[in-house]
Amino acid sequence: MARRLFTLDEANALLPTLRPMLMEMVEARKKIVEAEPDLWPVLEKAMGNGGGKKAGAVLPHFEIIQRNVQTITGLGIEIKDIGAGLIDFPAEREGRVVYLCWRLGEASVAHWHELDAGFAGRQPL
Fold first, then answer.
1. I need a surface site. Which of 27, 33, 46, 77 has the fewest CB within 10 A?
2. What whole-number distance in Å separates Cα of residue 71 and Cα of residue 96?
């Protein structure tokens, strides 16, 4: 399946939908870490394969995260850091695929980076 590529306008247009989901995920993650600090690394690894059944009291928070992860990734957006609300939108820039990078708290998508550069390689648009 071909990767969806976003324009800057498309990415920015999705922010009003994404912000509340990411805020909900950040808060749910915080509650999991507060309740069971050793459980978060296990849950984070299990999210992609349906694991995490031992979550107990934190299961409702895990389910919020799982639901929002599925919704966001289903749009073609990559979640890079749940705790920071950091996401990447695949995009085309100067004929190559890059990421438009956005973090919860930023007003709009205003940065990009190469596929292998990560957050540290962010550059202003």
1. 27
2. 26
What DSSP line would sit under the chain, residue for residue? -PPP---HHHHHHHHHHHHHHHHHHHHHHHHHHHH-TTTHHHHHHHGGGT--GGGGGGHHHHHHHHHHHHHHHHTTPEEEETTTTEEEEEEEETTEEEEEEEETT-SS--EEE-TTT-GGG-EE-
Q: What is the pLDDT of residues 21-56, one digit of tens each?
A: 999 999 999 998 888 777 666 666 655 555 444 456
Q: Where are the domains of the chain?
A: 8-117
- What's the pLDDT tens digit per position in 55-73? 567 788 889 999 999 999 9
Tokens found for residue 35: 């309740």
pTM: 0.83
Closest CA to 80 of 97, 104, 57: 104
